[in-house]
Every structure is written in C-alpha cells, then in structure tokens.
Amino acid sequence: MGLFDKKKKEKSTAEAAENIKLEDADVTASVDTSRRFSVIVDGVTTMLDGNGSIVSGTLFGKVLKGDKVYVYMAGVPAVECEVQAVEAKIENRTSIVDEAEDTNVSLQLTLPDEVQLKKYSVITNVPPQDKVNPKVSVENPALAGIINGMTKYGQDNGFHATVAYHVSHGHFLTPIKMDAEPEVNENGVAVIKKDTRIGFYMLKSQMKLAGTPEDKDSMVLPLFTDWTSLRRWEGLAKDGQRVHTQILSFQDVYALLKRGDAYAGIAINPFNPVPCTLPIPYLDTITGTPGYQAEFAPKSEGGHVKEEKVPAGKRILLGVPKDGEETNAIRAKLLEYGKAHDDIYSISFLTKVEEDTKVVRHLVVLEFPEEYTPENMKPHMEAIYQELAPIAKEINQIEYAIKGKIPAIDNVVAEHALQMVVYTK
User: Fold this and answer.
1) I want to staple 345 with a disulfide (CB 3.0 to 4.6 A). Which of 1, 131, 180, 367 is the partner?
2) 118 strand-pairing partners
C-alpha cells in the first residue's frame, strides 16, 4: 500500500456523543466524480483588454475549455468563473488546446476585476461546501488541490502557509470500526449508540516522522478529503461490507492526537498519487499561528502568537532588540519575506516587555494596504510565524501589531526607525 501499512487501533469511547455524525459509502455525491481536476497557481497575468486573467500552474486531472471552475484562496470566499482558453505543455511544446491532462497549463479565466489571484490559489471544478451535511459527501476542494503540490512546492514556506490554512479549516473522513451497528434516526442520519466502542484505523509510515521515539514506529491517522480519495484504499471494504466513517474537523483530529501517544501525525489522502503526511510538530505549528489562535482558540485563552493589543492599565515597555545571532537571523528573515510580498508595505521588529511580569517577547509590526481585512492579513502572519519559529529560541514568544492601530507602538517605531524598521517598500 505505497508508503503505508494498515493496522487498526480499537479505542474505548464511553464519551462518544449520541449525535456524532457518520457517513456511509452510499451517501449522496455533491459533485460529479468522473472528472475531478485541480490547478495550483504559480503565476498570474491580467489581460490588458480587461477580458479576464491568465493563470499558469500545475494541472492534476483533466480540464476542458468551457469548464465551470472555482478559485480558492486562503481567507476569502470561493469565486466561480469559466475557462475560456487552455494552453498546455505537451511533449515539450506549448499549444492552444481544447483539453489538457496532468501537465503544466495556462488558463484564461473570466475572473471579476476585483479578484486578485495569488500564488498557490487552487482552481478546481469541485464547488465549495460551506456546511457539513452527513447525508452529502464531504468535500475539501481547496485542500485536496493544494496538497497535490507537496512534492513540487514543499520547500516553499509560502506554500506551507497555504497548506496550513486549508488543513486547519478542513473536515475529514476517517473510517472506523464499531462493536455495535449505528441506528438511523428520523433525519436519515446514522447515530452511534452511547457506550459503543470505536476503533480508529492506523497506518504505518515507512518514513520516521519528527517527534517519534527511536524505538517506536511512526503511526499516523488516515484522513480523507473526499470519498474519491477514500475509495482508493483497496481492501478496506471486503465482501460487500459497509464502510462506516466519522466526520472529523481538524480541531477534532488535533484533540484526538494529543490525548495520547499512539499517533505520530496524520496522513491525508494516503493512497492518492501525492499523499500528504504531517507529523504532530507540524500540526503544533499550525495551531500556534496567530490566525489559528484568533479563529479557533477559546476566547478565554491566549495563544503564544497573537496580534498585539495593549491591555488597559498595564505598562508595556517597547525597545530595540539587542544584537545577537537570534535577532539578526530574525531581521534577515523579515527582510527576505517583505521583499517577496508586494502587499506588505513595511515590517518593524521590536522587543516588548511587560513591566509587572518582566516577560520578554518579540513584536513584529506589519503595514498592509488600508483596505486589507484580518482575513487578508492572517496568511502573512502564519507564514512569517513559520519562518521565525525555528529561529526564536531565547525569546520564544512572537506577537504582532498592525501599523496604524496602536499609536504608542507607531510612535516608538517612528522615533527609532533606523533600528526597528527592517523592511519598507
């Protein structure tokens, strides 16, 4: 089975709620699965005559001229448009074609003028699924598309920031074993009876994952973005056996993994041509990003990475970070990131100290276009965090502020611009 061996772990689940959602192999499909395709965007050109945009990228599957497609970007709603023209690389030559499959392509799309496509956007014919319905097949079109690029783009932190966003917003299928058959309620939804024992499957990764003890195998929880990917698991259903699955959000998955030490990580679509295996330290990084903390962390708890807000009545001391190997490396990473992103106007780097607790933190101040919303900013904060987290050792807490939001911080940055501003456009 490729990189994985199959095992099953039985877990007692007295806490299993009576309304846990299940999905079976005969659920209603929400999309025609006969021809799925996706394109990972790595270049965008706007037509001078205003007649749409041309995007280039890597095609997985088969696209046809005239296809209705959806464009997915982190933090914004999906945009529906049409493929007006296809240019594909075939036998080392590029040609205008009516269809293309599994190659590099350029697509002319009927995108609205206000839509600004970014690198690692995903274009697919699978429509968005805003709400999970246990009677309709689960779909994660953006995630299913972006993880196809793990091999080609896996060294790019910007790519991993996009993966992290779509993983954290995913709802996954995972097959389960039960010691009692579920009952179907009046709404046609299978319901697990209380005190049912549930077995979650495990796969053995042939690669040693980060965080796995030397004397243990790297066991991962198999997760699937859709039924097409799940059905690639040959031998899962035998002799007409019904396959029961549970729908898990990423938050459910992360909590399950952190309850014990059975799993070293997750495997998303492990039987697809391009599987995606993420170890627990990678998932820890996702949950530590400012965007994740702002959206998913309990309101009473603060994350270790967050947008800076000065509490009323508390004195905050702001200063220039002292020179050193760590701070110099951080400055270099921030400068590199700013140069690579035209929508970041400036980046400043400060030290923040709470006078009463003496806790010292790094503070990164970002300047964005005025029209930017928090949803536009979150992917940048997540990507910057992934850049800085391996470097920040002595001071391991990184916080953010937005230029123009906190006058006290703006004043300090203006006064010490030569020492604090590491990048300006």
Assistant:
1) 367
2) none
N-terminal to C-terminal alpha carbon distance within the chain: 50
CATH fit for domain 37-124, picks 2.40.30.10, 3.80.30.20, 3.50.50.60, 3.20.20.390: 2.40.30.10
Domain with CATH 2.40.30.10 in the chain: 37-124
The pLDDT value given to residue 3: 42
- 354-395 pLDDT per residue, tens: 666 667 778 899 999 988 888 888 888 888 888 887 777 666
pLDDT at 15 over 70: no
pLDDT in tens, 49-73: 556 678 999 999 999 999 999 999 9
Q: Which CATH class is domain 306-424?
A: alpha beta
Chain segment 161-185, per-residue pLDDT in tens: 999 999 999 999 999 888 877 777 7
CA gap 4, 204 in Å, rounded: 5
Q: How confident is the model at residue 4 (pLDDT cuts 50, 70, 90)?
A: very low
